[in-house]
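Dear Dr. H.,

I hope your travels went smoothly. While you were away I took the liberty of generating a structure for the chain from your last submission, since the lab meeting agenda had it listed for discussion. I wanted you to have the full record in hand beforehand rather than looking at slides cold. The sequence, exactly as received, is reproduced here:
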Amino acid sequence: MINAATQDTIPSPALERRDDMGRLVAMTWHGAGADADTGSARWLVAVDGSACSLRAVAMVAGLATQEKGAGVDLVHVQPWLNKEAAETELPRRGWAATAQARQLLDAAAVRWRLHVVMGEGAPEIASLADALGSRGIAIGSRGLTATESLLLGSVAYRVVHLARLPVLIVR
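The corresponding predicted structure, in token form, is as follows:
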């Protein structure tokens, strides 16, 4: 449940998921005109608020406007939080990090849903795409060199290897 201080700026989610300890671990919001249907006419776009992820949203928005009934699922993954922090920080961080992406989709008149989840980025993104029956995954690339990718790891690189469906990487 979202506390009263954040309730004014963040709408109540359509769905919440909790773990065995009662900790909030996932939330879903439906944008205007979006419904609970899943399916192959929807792309899953990973959003972290970076310029690369916003370019991925813009590219998928363009694809979605070309197909009647198409929509977009946005996903924002947060690292693990304790039970108390998850109640306020998970929705606040996810809503803030995706503000520009949601505005972009609204401006393009593309239906969207927002999924904010806790966990490790790549596995959560690949798993959600499978669960939703997505057409594909779009994710921004931060332009890491091969050496930096080996040293730091890359969510986009890991998504490509974990996903069982097409992955669009946008620079």
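Two observations you may find useful: The two ends are 36 Å apart (CA to CA). The longest strand covers residues 71-78.

With kind regards,
E. W.
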